[in-house]
Amino acid sequence: MSLERFLNQSVSPWMNAEGPESDIILTSRIRLARNLKNHAFPTISSQEEAKKVLEKFQGMIPLLNLYPLKDAEFLKMEHLQPLHKQVLVEKHLISPNLAEQSSHGACLLSQDEVISIMVNEEDHIRIQCIFSGLQLEEAFNLANAVDDQLEQHLDYAFSEVRGYLTSCPTNTGTGLRASVMMHLPGLVMTQQMKQLIPSINQLGFAVRGIYGEGSEALGNIFQISNQMTLGKSEQEIILDLKNVVEQIVQQERSARESIVKTAGIQLEDKVWRSLGILKNSRIIETKEAAKCLSDVRLGIDIGYIENISKNILNELMILTQPGFLQQYAGGPLRPFERDVRRATLIRERLLLEKNS
Amino acid sequence: MSLERFLNQSVSPWMNAEGPESDIILTSRIRLARNLKNHAFPTISSQEEAKKVLEKFQGMIPLLNLYPLKDAEFLKMEHLQPLHKQVLVEKHLISPNLAEQSSHGACLLSQDEVISIMVNEEDHIRIQCIFSGLQLEEAFNLANAVDDQLEQHLDYAFSEVRGYLTSCPTNTGTGLRASVMMHLPGLVMTQQMKQLIPSINQLGFAVRGIYGEGSEALGNIFQISNQMTLGKSEQEIILDLKNVVEQIVQQERSARESIVKTAGIQLEDKVWRSLGILKNSRIIETKEAAKCLSDVRLGIDIGYIENISKNILNELMILTQPGFLQQYAGGPLRPFERDVRRATLIRERLLLEKNS
Prior knowledge:
Two copies of one chain form a homodimer.
Chain A: H1 3-10, E1 25-34, H2 47-60, E2 73-76, H3 82-90, H4 96-101, E3 106-109, E4 115-119, E5 125-132, H5 136-153, E6 158-159, E7 163-164, E8 176-183, H6 185-189, H7 193-202, E9 205-208, E10 221-226, H8 234-280, H9 286-302, H10 311-319, H11 322-329, H12 335-351
Antiparallel strand pairs in A: 1-5, 1-8, 2-3, 3-4, 4-5, 6-7, 8-10, 9-10
């Protein structure tokens, strides 16, 4: 498959670098956890029960008439190749849990991959919307519309006192998880990030790496999300997160300015060397690729590097993951082969840039 | 000054990569040490004596009619700026000793910089000829012709028993030092060089770095030269050195072949990354520049890199030395400024290459 065709098939619209504050914020994501009344929740349900939930959901799909869900694709986990599932995980469209451990797990995916509804994950239903840049309200509004649609056809487990009921009590209430993926090289380079994380935590927000809980902050990318789902309205949760994120954006911008002022040439050197490595290496591991992509993206944001699209980071952080590389190669690859393939894919992707 | 003009003025013809075995041998150099009868040798002579020798030499210059010395330039050390002397040292045209410590030191330099005759170095006269590639006989023949010319006008200190007399007994006899500058990345990478050096020494040859005694083998460049000047004819010395050098050339070729076979992709990765660094860095130290230049030259020799001239290594190893950088900048530079200027010069030089 040609790289261009592969990219056309692989790159979701929310991977572009066009939303508000997109110099620092890659994506905004909203997730709503819902469960069906009168059905045991997935964490304790039988295979049979799970099957019933799946059938109920599937039966309702033809009734959905929300435009963004037009021609949405329904994917049953048991029918998918492991590699295909891995790619969906790497694109953040399904969770590793749904891919590997669910019984009768499935996913309804909108054509543009902005909406993904997981069935039989930890909860019966998890609605997710991803937008590029800082667009939490927009993502929430869409998730809300999807939720309203589903509610017309499904009976949710809901308590007037506790709100939406969920398998894990940490999601009960709004069932809302709002998260923002941020590129914070300035705060990492100036050593501020380490101190910042505990203060963000104290405000009730979690800080994670690009692939969720326990994952490393590859490429200086951090996910900030609310930890509380109860005792606040959806709007409050989103507004609070937005406020924290906007403060971090300001701090990141100051950090970048101060590095440019105090160590401009060193930063330029770092950034250009990383571009040199991405354009030339024949073997590259995930970690080094992420580091270099982060440097190059920073170089583009600061204006050192021209003629290379900001999307480079957003796209390649995902497209150079093991599942994607193997999909592009058309079959399984050993780790070393992946490092070679990763280097090739990055070089070819950079060649697609004009005048690069 | 534009880089092209600077290069035109700076690059000597023997810096090109065109002589025999030029994939491995950069240059062949012959040096003849001679002293004048009836004058104290420089190491013990008075200022006055040194001045007389200089005047005697200078008086004879108009009488020289050897074509390669036509329009040769006579440079008195006391009249040269420190930077100019440093550049001549970096080009191997004069010794650091002549530049810094000689009394009434001078140098007669042919237009093409192939012939350089030092006056009042450790010996009264040192004739040097440099050729590109493996051309020891050619260099010796020219040095010999120069020597014959000088002998027509000067009385050499010569003993029928000991041959030419010199300040240091290690040069007595033929006064000949023949040396070959070799690029040996294959033997270094395969760890063979460390074992090879003692065996070369045992055969009576010295192994040094690019800037002579005590200098590091920057850029995997080694200088092999005869240690004995006595008890063998000039032809024997040259033939013995040539034999050793040709053996090393064979071993280097085998080492390269074996690396390509066993670790082709790793080598390709190394070579291309180095090119990426040279094309992109904004700050680079001598040592890293030399390492990268060596890698790139190897990549060109093996055929991984096309469209870049082999001269890159030969030229840039010399042009990125501190003196040259400061000459190009038009004045003194602090070490950090040199690292920045070095990176710029290398990038600009690479941009002069077609399609690079």
